[in-house]
Specification:
single chain; 267 residues; alpha/beta; Cobalt-precorrin-4 Transmethylase, domain 1; 5-stranded mixed β-sheet; 10 strands; 23% strand; elongated; binds S-adenosylmethionine; EC 2.1.1.152; precorrin-6A synthase (deacetylating) activity; 4pyrrol_Methylase_sf
């Protein structure tokens, strides 16, 4: 991606690097190469509870590149209006994305020299439930700062989840859908029996505990705090609820993902 503005070699370079779901060993060789060619890392902190995630990113840098060869610039993520539900949900996300775009633009304009390259380290894969690419496009559209960017794919929490459970995402010639807890709480997706659920703060799977469904669940996958659980949802569901509540209490935050497999005996 490039913009026609200024001499090409003047244009700042940005890498959007997928860093995997939490384990520094999940960085690809391409990601490590991109890390090593980066002068400035931009890290957005979501506040006290998520500062563990900022530290995990810093640990990844320590694990793969010599200290002193780069700078880290931290900024505070704007608060998102999570109370906005129903039809208000999309505008709330739009406002939040624009607020983020203003911060990213300032970071790129003020912290990155013309000849330098910067990087945003994105959890999992940048293509999955992440707004970084949309935000960079929004900044380019504003036309106030010029840069070109590339994207390095990462191991998503979805890939990490099914690998840890040693299962696949789909069954033979079948479909799989990736969705959010918010959508699953409304209904089970039609025409598909294998559903991956992310961003679920309210354990939407509870609605389906009386159905013929297996659940494969994982929290903090790839990190030292990883917890896994699986089984028929009637039995594993209540166990997961307990594990989840205990972990949330202990750490103050949780990131979990799960696969629901309807009619599990059908291959
Ligand atoms: C904003 S999305 C980012 C997804 C990310 N781009 C990816 O590829 O995995 C955040 C959601 O990803 C999932 N997630 C990310 N990392 C995780 C991990 N280490 N363990 C379990 N779930 C994770 C959770 O469902 C969380 O709510």
């Amino acid at each position: 991606m490039s913009v026609a503005c200024g001499r090409l070699d003047d244009v700042r370079k940005i890498h959007v690097i997928g860093i995997g779901a939490g384990d520094p060993d999940q960085l690809t060789l391409q990601a490590v190469r991109a890390l090593r060619s980066t002068d400035v890392f931009f890290v957005l902190d979501k506040g006290e509870v998520k500062s563990d995630l900022t530290q995990l990113r810093r640990d990844m840098l320590d694990a793969h590149i010599p200290q002193g060869s780069y700078r880290v610039v931290e900024a505070r993520d704007p608060e998102r209006d999570r109370a906005a539900g129903g039809t208000a949900y999309s505008p709330a996300v739009g406002d939040w994305r624009s607020a983020r775009a203003a911060i990213y633009q300032r970071l790129i304009a003020e912290e990155l020299g013309d000849e330098e390259s910067g990087a945003f380290l994105v959890w999992g894969d940048p293509a999955l439930y992440d707004s970084t690419l949309g935000i960079l496009e929004e900044i380019l559209e504003r036309g106030e700062v010029a840069f070109e960017y590339d994207v390095v794919p990462g191991i998503s929490s979805v890939s990490a989840l099914v690998a840890r459970h040693r299962t696949g995402l789909n069954r033979v010639a079948g479909s799989v859908q990736i969705t959010t807890g918010r959508r699953l709480a409304e209904s089970f997706p039609e025409g598909v029996d294998d559903v991956v659920v992310m961003l679920d703060a309210h354990q939407a799977f509870r609605r389906y505990v009386d159905q013929d469904i297996d659940i494969y669940w994982g929290a903090y996958i790839g990190t030292p705090d990883e917890i896994l659980a699986s089984g028929p949802i009637a039995e594993a569901g209540p166990r997961i609820e307990r594990l989840r509540a205990e972990a949330r209490e202990r750490k103050g935050w949780i990131m979990d993902t799960y696969l629901l497999r309807r009619n599990p005996d059908r291959r």
